[in-house]
């Protein structure tokens, strides 16, 4: 009789070990797919912005709104959103630009792109910390806030956009990155 109990315990241990192995295999597959997805996204973005250096944040779905005439208007941009660092020239804290220089030249340290599923044109915004603006243009810099399920961004042209991300955690994560990049 004790041999039957031992056999059952051994069978249970084998089943538990097999379950643990299956879980580990599934986790490895998910990690591999995630690495592949990020590499593929990096390569796609590099076609649009060859200065991409590193993906910082990636989210599966975003919709863009523009604030005009005291109302949010949905734009025809929706799809995966990526925020990334760029290999722009190294800027020291002493390097200062006017907003006009920023708009004419490519001084952005970071980029945001929505790989549009609605039409062939993607939505992009370049980011540069407000610390890199000359004193006279300090009030014309970028602005980022989180409000009413939107990450709100004012660009150097003065346009205000709302980014709605499906996942609230992704939205908060992206907001924190954008805020940091604009404030530093």
UniProtKB/TrEMBL annotation:
Its main location: cytoplasm. GO terms for molecular function: enzyme activator activity; mRNA binding. One of its GO terms (cellular component) is P-body. Residues 1-27 are annotated as: Disordered. Residues 1-10 have a biased composition (Basic and acidic residues). One of its GO terms (biological process) is mRNA processing. It comes from the Eukaryota. The keyword Repeat does not apply. It is found in: Cytoplasm. Belongs to the DCP1 family. This is Uncharacterized protein.
